[in-house]
Amino acid sequence: MNKESISDGSLSTLEPGISSVYLCQRAHSATYSYTLDDRLQGELDDFNGEQKKQETVGAFQKIPMVMPATDILMSAQRKSRNVLPTKGIANIAKRERNKGAKQLDALMKELSVPLRTYTENFPKRRDLHPYERSLIELTFGEGYYEQVLGRVDALRKRITSVGKQHASVCAKSTTKREAEERLTEGRKKLEESFQHGKHAIDDLVNVAKALRSMPVVDLHIPTLCLVGSPNVGKSSLVRILSSGKPEVCSYPFTTRGILMGHIVSNHERFQVTDTPGLLTRHDDDRNNIERLTLAVLSYLPIAVLYVHDLSEDCGTSVADQYITYKHIKDRFGDRLWLDVISKCDLLGKKEPISFSDADDDVAQYRRLGPEGALRVSVQSEIGVKELKERVHELLTSQMARIKASKAEHETQEIGTSVL
Description:
- It is a single chain.
- The relative contact order is 0.11.
- This protein has two domains: 145 residues, Four Helix Bundle (Hemerythrin (Met), subunit A); 195 residues, P-loop containing nucleotide triphosphate hydrolases (Rossmann fold, 3-Layer(aba) Sandwich), CATH 3.40.50.300.
- It has twelve helices and six strands.
- It starts with 7 loop residues before the first helix and ends with a helix.
- It has 419 residues and is of the alpha/beta class.
- The longest helix is centred in the middle third of the chain and has 37 residues.
């Protein structure tokens, strides 16, 4: 997600209406001991189709371009005025009412057809991958996406109703003057109706821009996800590991969205994502920026590179980093995992934020970090080569997991088709 598309401030205004993100549990087909009839088989095929839809991402890149409301109206006005009466009508009154009815019908269609296209081609949230569903919720707020599409469809229905009504009235005109007056009145009513609801289209334009700017994650390519407290050095590591070029600054929450990059190692292509920093607090109290990180951890088949700053140069105490780390490790410990202690060249050079540790685990964490953690300094290039080697090993293992999962899924599909 480009940080320009959804600002920190705009996200925070949506925050009170956002509910927590819940992990989507998928149903598994039961084994049947009898032959399915055509109706049940059709339902099963529909179910499998829904499963396949939810197993892929990238729907946001397929949404249609949305024309601004002003452009739709101007185009409709121009095209409808060019509509001519049916050839061969000699009577002036009949010809005029024919032209008026046809132009009103054309104006109605030119205004309503684009709206129908949008409502039909924007993805239904229930068909999206859980990761993309969570992005919609965290970006716009609960129900906003459906609300905007609903308003656009309501506008389409209103335009269709008004257009049919006035085209019918115009078609019943008995004189040329009456037909002209009813055409003028019909145009006015249609344009007023459209203008009254045009804000829904403008809102849809903004929704489309935000969705298309979101990063695409290929579920079949191993993905390295960098996680940690704010300003611990995640973005700096992304820069040395991948093609991603996040902004690197010495203040917290530089990363306000999900940034994707790519790693090419030994002729293999991998993905790497930088995520917003996590503060030390309960998940229900997290803001939408932090919840983006939890969405990646919850819904994508990622390997975790957790970054620690024991120098406390990040501004977060070691004790608070430890609490956050333990929480994330306990919750997502089934992921492939690599711990990295960043800014290791600063260790011992700065006074710690907190001078005493009542907890022995925190004291040990302060001295050594997590067991097996790799010490790295981007500035001094300490441990960088080993980091790249360890990351390649991690992603290779992740590739093996993905292939095993895919093979298991294909086996289940074969078993289902046999039934």
